[in-house]
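Let us work through a complete example step by step.
Step 1: write down the sequence.
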Amino acid sequence: MQLDLIQQALREEGLDAWLFFDHHLRDPLAYRVLGFTPAQSVTRRWYYLIPAHGEPRGLAHQIEPTVLAPLPGSISHYSGWKQQKECLATLLAGCSRIAMQYSPECAVPYVSTVDAGTIELVRSCGVEIATSANLVQLFEARWSDEALASHRAAQVKVDGIRRAAFQGVADALRAGHATNEFDVHEFILEQFRNAGLFTDHGPIVAVNANASNPHYEPTRERHSPIGPGDLLLIDLWAKLDRPGAVYYDITWTGFCGTTPPDLLQNVFTIVARARDAAIQRVQQAAAAAEPLAGYQVDDAARAVIREAGFEDRFFHRTGHSIGEEVHGNGANMDNYETHDARRIIPRTCFSIEPGIYLPQFGIRSEVNVYRGESSAEVTGEKQERLLALLG
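Step 2: predict the structure and record it as tokens.
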């Protein structure tokens, strides 16, 4: 456990303490942030308080007295529910404002793991509860140098596989060979395995109206052919198949012909402008050391699409945090699905992926942005034009 860093973060947030709580391993964040494995089974409630100053202290059930044994500080014990409440009040003595894995109105569901009843119980002890969302990303979302290196290695491999997938479709079309979404899906997964990459699901390979479903994925039983004149969207994500590796996640689109129709080209241009406006917003804030929240990046992309008259056709957030899971626990670029007011902090990475989804086709352009100490960069290749696969 990084106790000094946790306490420093608490002081910077103006919080008296961070209260961790679990029952039946419901909050994996608690174990990862605290950096411990319970010394015995967790069938009873435990609490662990890290104050902004001083030694941590915990509260565990007498049936499971050693559950918090790996952690520093004194551990008290309770048995009955009345004693639990009394001991919890004692644990919280001297605190007026604390953090928990809670998010007002569930605005950040990734950290909203504490149940409403426990929130009520803690509040009954006379404390105000603040969200731990900003604290969590300090310990969950920041990348080490090794993680960044793994991302860059995955980027080279995934970008190469993406190029090969589009080229394979182009070759099949030129040769007059039948191909379909599922064939390309399976090709990408095979290339991932051969390259030593891992993905938890996907990829998305979608033509025409299927590309208007942002989470469409072809299956052996349900897929569409890919033919001349089709719009083809490929969204693929993977990481090195080793512990501690982090994901690289991109989306590109192409036209199965020589010259894309004006509507396709126009929609791609708008999406790319929205993507670049969001990238620029992040880069300017990083260079100026300006605090920037995820919702502000979403606003930058969404404004471009709104001005172009497609506001109602962009119905997901602009981007998500990226880590060891493709959807990580850092700030999301979101003022649509949620109002994500978490700050974008150094050494974190996230996608920027605006899209426009019409009844006949959908276009999305996705890049990954890494926020360094004083700058921000797109870590891989950026699609500047709609691919013309037979051009």
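Step 3: interpret the result. The mean pLDDT is 96.
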